[in-house]
Write a structure and sequence with these properties.
Helix content: over 70%
Structural class: mainly alpha
Mean pLDDT: 81
Number of domains: 1
Low-confidence stretches: 237-241, 438-455
Order of helices and strands: EHHHHHHHHHHEHHHHHHHEE
């Protein structure tokens, strides 16, 4: 008889290049994020057309933006904990079905109250998907590629915005703004069917939970087909089997300072991102540019975001998380301030927003990778979900503050200058994180007992 070997899923994944099975899993997660980005951010460039058709003052859309993001916040926090207890796959599938359904219903909205409710319900689906696709992708990626995989994965959000912007540019004149919501609902419905069939459960989670060894072996055979599955047990050490950690455990084991400062970075980063995405078209309109200019500038912002996300993982691996994030948040501060003075020039605005997109979304991508690596498998979805949830508070504050400043009749230049404050605060939190943790948990990498990469 052949000798029975006991290995951890993390060891096998970390020691081998990505298989087609892993690439397909990460690709499916990326598609979910593209659709998530489309549905989360398309409301920003649709707002002027919707306001005109429905007779809703555009300044009132701050509350509608905030309702969707409030749903995102709640679901990010709740679904992360659910996934750490029950698994990643079905929360992703259910979340995709939820945001698809309510996006379709938004196309029939006829009043402010209807939009408010439907955007909140759509946000519940959108928020439930993000932490779980990030966690699932990281758990199928070798530890040395975590930052790169998350960087590539997070291209889905700006790519979704770019696709939405181009779709809106072509579809709104022909069929009106409602057609964009129909497209944004039908696509995820089709993708959800693919997810049910092709998206696997996290094999690291299954091993952590002590699930059916034969099921784990089937997944691992697609990652390492040369292993003789019948003679290998994929497991984790007994002391790592606890699942479903409560939120308080995010503050134990030396993680408290890292968790708090990570939350500050997420909060300020998403204030910046959603302030720009939701209000830049309207602010450019106030600066005497046509509505189409706002849509095109946002599309260019998204293209810059894609480049920033793609480069983020390689930059973090090469120069370290601290230096890259500090440069990006500093760049966001300078570029947001510069935008206030060039907003009357379309070519200069395009150039600044392109680079700004790369910086702000690159930084957000880096924070997602940082959060995914900071927490072990047993609490990864909870950790990522709560970091994103706290960030979503910032994503609510950003649009609402923009609406408040518009109602105060501040100039477009004054409002854009205010947009430089949040990334400056994020840069300060990055400096504090490096200083007070002595280059430890938030920026150094180690391994947990189950073979997972942790910060």
């Amino acid at each position: 008889m052949r000798e029975l070997r006991t290995l951890t899923a993390g060891e096998i994944i970390d020691q081998r290049p990505l298989s087609r099975f892993q690439i397909l899993t990460i690709l499916l997660c990326g598609i979910v994020l593209v659709l998530d980005g489309f549905n989360t951010q398309s409301i920003g460039f649709l707002a002027p057309a919707m306001a005109e058709t429905l007779g809703i003052p555009v300044r009132n859309f701050g509350a509608i933006f905030g309702a969707g993001l409030f749903g995102l916040m709640i679901a990010s926090m709740a679904m992360g904990s659910v996934a750490d207890r029950w698994g990643r796959k079905w929360p992703v599938v259910i979340s995709t079905l939820v945001f698809a359904t309510f996006t379709l219903l938004t196309a029939s909205a006829a009043s402010f109250n209807q939009l408010l409710i439907l955007r909140f319900l759509t946000g519940l689906g959108l928020g439930g998907a993000i932490p779980n696709v990030v966690a699932l992708s990281c758990e199928y990626a070798p530890s040395c590629l975590t930052s790169v995989v998350v960087g590539v994965l997070m291209c889905g959000m700006p790519l979704g915005l770019a696709v939405g912007g181009l779709a809106g540019y072509m579809m709104i004149p022909a069929w009106g703004w409602r057609s964009v919501f129909y497209l944004g609902g039908l696509l995820p419905l089709a993708v959800a069917i693919l997810l049910i069939r092709w998206l696997p459960e996290s094999v690291r989670f299954l091993a952590l939970r002590g699930s059916d060894p034969k099921k784990i072996a089937r997944f691992m055979a697609q990652i390492a087909p040369d292993l003789e599955s019948a003679n290998v047990i994929f497991t984790v050490p007994q002391d790592c089997r606890k699942v479903g950690f409560p939120v308080r455990d995010l503050f134990t084991g030396g993680r408290a300072t890292g968790t708090i400062l990570l939350w500050v970075q997420f909060f300020m980063s998403l204030v910046t991102l959603y302030f720009i995405v939701n209000w830049l078209p309207e602010l450019l309109k106030q600066a005497a540019m046509p509505v189409s200019a706002g849509v095109m500038v946002l599309s260019l912002f998204s293209i810059g975001s894609i480049f920033g996300s793609l480069a983020q993982g390689f930059l973090m691996n090469r120069f370290g998380s601290y230096l890259v994030l500090l440069v990006e948040f500093g760049g966001c501060t300078l570029l947001a301030g510069l935008l206030a003075f060039v907003a009357t020039s379309f070519p200069q605005t395009m150039a600044v927003t392109f680079v700004l997109g790369g910086c702000v979304t690159g930084a957000q991508s880096g924070l997602n990778a940082l959060a995914a690596g900071f927490y072990p498998t047993s609490m990864r979805s909870t950790g990522v979900g709560w970091a994103l949830g706290i960030g979503r508070i910032g994503s609510i504050v950003g649009p609402v503050l923009g609406g408040v400043m518009l109602s105060m009749e501040l100039s477009a230049q004054q409002i854009l200058l205010a947009g430089a404050v949040p990334p400056l605060c994020a840069a300060a939190a990055t400096i504090l994180s490096n200083r007070f943790q002595d280059n430890s948990s938030a920026y150094r990498v180690g391994r947990d007992a189950g073979g997972d990469f942790v910060k």
